[in-house]
Amino acid sequence: MSHKEDNEEKSRCHRTDLYASIPRTCLPIVYHPDYNITFMGLEKLHPFDAGKWGKVIRFLKEEQFINDGNLVEAREAAEEDLLVVHTKRYLNRLKWSLVVATITEIPPLLFLPNFLVQRKVLRPLRTQTGGTIMAGKLAVERGWAINVGGGFHHCSSDRGGGFCAYADITLAIKFLFERVEGISRVTIIDLDAHQGNGHERDFLDDRRVFIMDMYNRYIYPGDEYAKRAIKRKVELDWGTEDSEYLQKVELHMEGTLNEVLPDIIVYNAGTDILDGDPLGGLSISPQGIIKRDELVFRAAKRRGIPVLMVTSGGYQKKTARIIADSILNLHRQGLIEGDAAEGEGSSPLTTHMTSTSGSAGSTSTAV
After folding, report:
1. Which of 153, 154, 258, 300 has minimal CB crowding within 10 Å?
2. Residue 52 resides in a domain
3. Residues 6+ apart with CB under 8 A from 169
4. pLDDT at site 366
5. Which family is annotated (predicted)?
6. What is the pLDDT of residues 138-175, one digit of tens each?
């Protein structure tokens, strides 16, 4: 795409509330209570802890790392936002409760009126999606951002699955390409236990996106077509433990970042690698997960690359505590600041936002 064509593309950007200016008094941690799915106990029919995001926030508040005043409140992605990636046909299909029941693997949903499914299931997922998009902009501005949610890496532009109804990773990247000067290369580091076939399908022929994916080779989704998009593929065996796992993370992540230096890293930090996870099939300790996240942030900081982190899969009650402990460790290690004012006036990348206010797929699936 020529510079002129690029400018013309940006001038056609739709109006969006997701790129609103965020006060410097806020930490780049994005969340909304609407992330949590609670409806007549139906959420308990899927192994996913549909309230884990709120628990992460509660733990961080208990440790006095965040409070309601310095947290960024996520906004729901509107249909116009979703259409940046999704087809109209796909979004219309979500108006059928059967389709949503299949994607989320909660069969009773098919018996509910779609307006309830929209309000109680899809709106939380749209709000998490909006949070990922917002966190992308914040990561560029502040050097890092964490969406305490998102990471729906099995959803692509025209198909959902594995509890993933919206392609938040693809959306965040497309928004960055379209709206932020200086973002022309993105690296996705996907360390969830499952292959990230959604964003892989979306970026199959896009040379601007480098994908490293490290996953259990024997579980869902086993999408051979999507694997063609992976530039650095690391397939793990059942029961992989800390020592081997962390060695591979460091080796392949360093190789990835040495091969192509991106303008931003999108880090899919699934905790379904935890020992005992019913869907992940790996044997990583809580300390191993915390160290993994530290390795990613340390490599990024050493190179001056902004990081957008999403929390993705994780199917045990204790994963929320581990996510919170990992974020606290990143702060203790000096890899993220704990006082919003510390980042005042500094940015790892000088960016110029285009005007956004006035311009025209194992037997069980998993996040």
Report:
1. 258
2. yes
3. 132, 150, 151, 152, 153, 188, 196, 198, 199, 266, 268, 310
4. 63
5. Belongs to the histone deacetylase family.
6. 999 999 999 999 999 999 999 999 999 999 999 999 99
Note the pLDDT of residue 359: 36
Query: Which residue intervals of 122-223 are DSSP H helices?
Result: 123-142, 168-179, 197-202
User: Using 50, 70 and 90 to split pLDDT, how confident is the model at 51?
Assistant: confident
Report if residue 176 sits inside a domain.
yes
For 22, the token pair is: 């965020």
Q: Looking at 46, 154, 194, 199, which residue is catalytic?
A: 154
Structure tokens at 167: 């392609």
Task: Note the pLDDT of residue 355.
Answer: 36
pLDDT tens column, 220-238: 999 999 999 999 999 999 9
348: in domain: no
Contact 152, 169 (CB under 8 A): yes
Beta-sheet pairing, 29-31 with 232-236 = unpaired
CATH number at residue 75: 3.40.800.20
Q: Is 32 annotated as catalytic?
A: no
Q: Which domain holds residue 138?
A: 36-343
- 31 lies in some domain: no
Q: What is d(CA 286, CA 288) in angstroms, rounded to the nearest whole number? A: 5
Work out how many domains the chain is built from and give that number: 1
Tell me the C-alpha distance between 367 and 154, whole Å.
7
